[in-house]
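ok so i was messing around last nite and threw this chain in just to see what happens. nothing serious, just curious
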Amino acid sequence: RPTNFGASFARLAACIRQEIGRDVPSLERHFVAILASDREDLPHRLRHAVGLLRSRAIPVDWAMLLHDLRYWETEDHRVQRAWGEAFWGRAPRAAEDQEGETEADSESGETY
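result:
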């Protein structure tokens, strides 16, 4: 069964939660930054995220990722919504809730 990147990131969050006994807010902020990325910023953010997944031996479904990236900039944001639903188990927060977050917010330096 194909696994989207949001589901892989949810596994990462669960793995880290189990290791340290709590959520890591900066990990969620990093995921939100990925969802908010345009095509220009996306490769850098995904590269970092893939490194985090590899550090915990969480596989990436490369075929699904490639498929999703082809539809990244659709008006309905279907890929971002699907990733968010896989990560949070429901629809992600509204974009208005995410406004005002800066690059520094999403890369706080917390160690995952």
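not much to say yet. Residues 5-102 form a domain with the Peroxidase; domain 1 fold (CATH 1.10.520.40).
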